[in-house]
Amino acid sequence: MNVSVAPSSIGLSQARPISVAVLAMGGQGGGVLVDWIVALAERRGWYAQSTSVPGVAQRTGATIYYIEMIAPDASRPDRHPVLSLMPAPGKVDVVIGAELMEAGRAILRGLVSPDRTLLIGSSHRSLAVIEKTAPGDGTADAAQVYEAANVAANRFIAFDMAEIADATGSVVSAVLFGALAGSAALPFAIEDFEATIRAAGVGVDASLRAFAAGRERSAAALKQDPKVKPAAKPAPAKRFPSLEPIGHAGYDALVARARKLPAELHGIVAAGLQRVVDFQDVAYGDEYLERLEALPRDATGLLQAFAKYLAVAMAYDDVIRVADLKTRAGRFNRVRREVRAGDDQVLAITEFFHPRIEEMAGLLPPRLGEKLERSKHLARLIDRGRKLRTSAPPSFLLLYCVAGLRRFRRGTLRHAREMRHLDAWAQHVQRFAASDPALATAVCEARRLVGGYSDTHTRGESKFDKVMRASERLAGRRDAAEWVQRLTKVALKDADGAELDGALRTVETLFEDA
User: Fold this and answer.
1) DSSP code of 410?
2) To 10 degrees, what angle do helices 437-445 and 454-474 make?
3) For the segment 436-492, what is each residue's pLDDT rounded down to a tens digit?
4) N or C: fewer beta carbons within 10 Å in the chain?
5) Over the stretch 318-338, which tens digit does the pLDDT of each residue have?
């Protein structure tokens, strides 16, 4: 890693200040980190100033903090510097990203320059809203950030600081402060950094542990070959649960049956089986295997795709599922761990719900639900956002009762619609499997267009239906599978459906020209 920074390289002269930009999202302690850096400079008698431009929300826009610091002019003690309020592209000495993509955004904003900037970033990921809401897998490619950073920055330090924070019981900001100290980018002693943390008086012991670990990792990088820079970690291999009995007679019978499928499928089938049984019951798992067994055993690739997306389709998101997940004991324990709530602290969790008339009608029997959907008065009454504190008994009991409706799910309007849609898709797959396995596999993978709930689910299902109609039109062509894959990719990136409609018109021209 080429991370060594001589203190003189970023301007200890009186000519210009040292500039530091910090990009962090809510909850990562960016403000604390900035306060520490300012206090550190002032502790040594320097002038220091910090400003910030807040983001829109925790994962739709990071806050940009900017710090300038300069040593006093001993020959002119009566002079006070005028420091900048905002970072200027190409004029920043140190850029700190509290998460990998924040480091990438700093590069896009022009804050990182190859002749000057030390870039420090945590390599962990906290997915942005646009990544979570994208159909299919919207996760941004971390390798691209590494590649850009190695070109754009003069020096680049990156490692998983969130992992260190968790291990030391602290937060990312303390590890970042340690990485800054270990980089030798600022002309202050390690003792000054530690004294700054102690003076803050909050979470001192944990912060010092995280600081020391971050400093050691950063300092160790200084000893590496200066020509070597951090490389992106390879994506971890997908790990599936094992297809093993659990001591439940009904479930274990399904496991024994699933083991008769090709061995290559056991991992994905185990994951799918666990998902659908958790969603409904053992009988639902039996339906899952029945649908899977209807396909030819020799088409392994097709079976793998069908096993995956069949489980996703059968375990759809509805009001019952949401209520179930929000009232599980494991969720409350996880939230307590994430916010580091102590045993003597009271944790309050407030959920925001915005159900549509369609979600509420979906809980009723088909005839009654369809009648309710047509009521504009009820739609206006229901279609309002509500806040429920699930950590309080009244709201918890309300959601717990809704989750208990799972036993009646098969008789609801929503389930009837989901099963009709699933059956139509499965029939497509079975029909194409006999003549064109590649097309059948592409039709399986197109199912990733359908996901989420409410408007997201409706939009995704509409795009999926268009791709299915196109697959019927394309069946029999040698390039049918390629066209379905192409249409699926377009649909995944197309928010309003305009690009997909254009691609579908192109498909129609294939038959007009024929």
Assistant:
1) G
2) 170
3) 999 999 999 999 999 877 778 888 899 999 999 999 999 999 999 999 999 999 988
4) C
5) 999 999 999 998 998 888 887
Q: Which of 259, 324, 313 lies closest to 288, judged by CA?
A: 313
Total residue length of the chain: 514
pLDDT at 498: 83
| Helix spans in 183-203 (H) | 190-200
Instruction: Read off the pLDDT of residues 376-398 as tens digits, 9 standing for 90 and up.
Output: 888 777 777 788 898 899 999 99
Which residues in 129-145 are b (16+ Cβ under 10 Å) and which e?
eeeeebbbeeebebeeb
Please name which of 372, 326, 318 lies closest in space to residue 349, comparing C-alpha atoms. 326
Number of H helices, E strands in the chain: 23, 8
| Cβ atoms of residues 360 and 372 within 8 Å | yes
Residue 227 CA, chain-centre distance (Å), reads 32
222 alpha carbon, distance to own chain's centre: 31
| ∠ CA 12-14-15, rounded to 5° | 100
**24 near 167, Cβ under 8 Å?**
no
Q: How far apart are CA 131 and CA 128, in angstroms?
A: 5
Neighbours of 182 (CB within 10 A): 25
E strands within 279-416? 350-353, 386-389
Query: 121 in helix, strand or coil?
Result: strand
User: What burial class does residue 336 get, using C-beta atoms within 10 Å of its C-beta: 0-12 exposed, 13-18 middle, 19+ buried?
Assistant: middle
CB atoms within 10 A of CB 375: 13
* Cα pseudo-dihedral 70, 73, 74, 77, rounded to 10: -110
Contact by Cβ (8 Å): 294, 288: no
The span from the CA of 98 to the CA of 80, in Å, is: 32
| Straight-line distance from the first to the last Cα atom of the chain, in angstroms, rounded to the nearest whole number | 58
Question: DSSP secondary-structure letter at 412?
Answer: S
Question: Can you give 387-402 as a three-state secondary structure string?
Answer: EEECCCHHHHHHHHHH
Alpha-carbon gap, residue 128 to 223, rounded angstroms: 34
Q: Nearest 5 degrees, angle CA 316-CA 322-CA 27?
A: 120
| Stated pTM of the model | 0.73
CA–CA dist 39, 48 (Å, integer):
8
Q: Give residue 55's identity as a one-letter amino acid code.
A: G
Q: Are the C-beta atoms of 146 and 33 separated by less than 8 Å? A: no
Q: Where are the beta strands (DSSP E) in 93-163?
A: 94-97, 118-122, 155-159
